[in-house]
Amino acid sequence: MSNIASFGIRRWLGFLVFSALVLLTSAVAYVRIDRHLTEEATSRAIGDLRVEALFLLATFERTAAGIEALLDEAIAAGPPDEAAVGARMQAVHPPVSIIQMGLIGASGMLVASNHENFEPVDLSDREHFRVHLENRVGPDEMYVSVPVLGRVSGRYSIQFTKAVRDSQGAFRGVLVASYDAEEFVEFYERFPAPAGQLIVLAGFDGMIRTRSVAGGKSIFAFDVPHTHLHREIVAHGSREVAFLSPIDWIERVGYAQVSSRYPFYIVVANPVSVIFPNVAPYAIALASIAALLISLALGATLYSLALDMRFENRVFRERLENSRRLAEVARLGSLGELAAGLGHEVSTPANTIALATDNLERLLLAEGVLSEAVAKKLARIRGSSQRIKLLMDAVRAHARLPMRDETCDANDAVASALLLVGQQLRLADVEIVERLAPSVALPYAPRDLESVIINILLNARDAIVATDSVVRRVEIASERRGDRLLLTIEDTGGGIPEAIREKIFQPFFTTKPVGRGTGIGLSTAFQIVTARGGTIEAQSAPAGARLVLNLPVREAETTRAEAEFA
């Protein structure tokens, strides 16, 4: 029954998709025909915008050339020292659009002006001074700044500047002509233009000097180097342009005209609604409705298929994960049985060696032939056999199944884990540092807590070896905080990347090469720690990773400690 219903739903979805495609095709065809009919008018409109851009750019170039001639005349008229140039400033009578002409000395102070009662002002932080001081423009090149608020005039002005140098080429200051920025905007606004027409004067440095919108707001000094349009104009020169404005988010079409004399260009563009006035609103509405229908139909179909695939993938992943877990459990079970048998088999000869060593020592003492060298050798044999016995006891304890409500000593668990894997760390030239608090009882089976510590230590060793760290150290520390014990294991293995930090406790997740890691060590440790109310967290350390185990102290131990404190 469910298959029949699913078939019916998909049939209706197919019908909706077909209908939506028909509607969309009709709408697109209408729009294309309508635009084809207006292609000639569109080409004529962009041509008109090109003529306007050419005229505006020519006006800017004439203005800039006139100001540059004034600056060159002031520089070439006599000595370049501050007093001489200052005296010449008093005789200059620039156009009314130039708010002020002045000289910034080599120290950055305004030292001369064509205004009689000017006040010296520190302008050393201004960009139009620093570009010449730092030789970011050519020695004879005029720089045109973005509009800045004048510290003397209190008005927005564009600074036209040239460097003043002595006969040896040494920097003596900057000659400045401050041009009223509003003059450009007012000039642009006098042009008859449809609402939304954009006029932009921008430099190759990626800064808009002036931006005027018919019927809108004008702005200065807007950064545009990130736009694809700016890069295209600078790289390829004058061209037709179509763009979405990053300021008012209006789509426009127009023309960009690049100056052949100065590193500037002017863009004149109209909104698309002005360029394409004959596209019928109902055609756009029809296209929008058709697009909505097809999106809904396709979305429903894809959602249905995605649900089926998601369910099948989840079932497959669960089966695969269960089979892996069963195989791993079986392998660990057989290893546990093998470890328990091996511990028993090895402990017996170890005890025999220790007993034989004691008997031999007593015999040599009785005969009076026990030398110091022989005694040392016998002590080493006795110590090695005792170490074998302790190691096998730890292996058997680790392989034994945990009992309900079993507890363990925190420091004993650390010692047992180091007994089992400490030699592996030392063979890898890894230093082990212990800073343990007084021992407390924890509600974990010794085998379980040892397994957690062993997994973390082996992962730390592998990380240190893989990164070839200069400092090869693992530090184990514990700290009692009320009814909790913080057990910290920190390594110098380079750390855990932030992107995978939340995944390391997931089953079968590993960053080790194939055949080197199973991905179950830390997930098993996570399950053991959290099963008794503890937490385990991975953190960044100065030279590697830090795993923090927040473990509950056995309730009886906590009660006894509180009673003794009281």
- How much strand? 15-25%
What is the number of helical segments per DSSP (H or I, 4+ residues)?
A: 13
Q: What would the principal axes of the Cα set say about the shape?
A: elongated
In angstroms, what is the radius of gyration? 42 Å
Counting DSSP E segments of at least 2 residues, the number of strands comes to 19
Rounded mean pLDDT score: 76
How much helix is in the residues?
40-55%
Note the gap between the termini. Answer: 72 Å
- For this structure, the quaternary state is single chain
Main sheet: strands, sense, barrel: 6 strands, antiparallel
Q: Structural class from helices and strands? A: alpha+beta
Poorly predicted runs of 5 or more residues: 1-5, 556-566
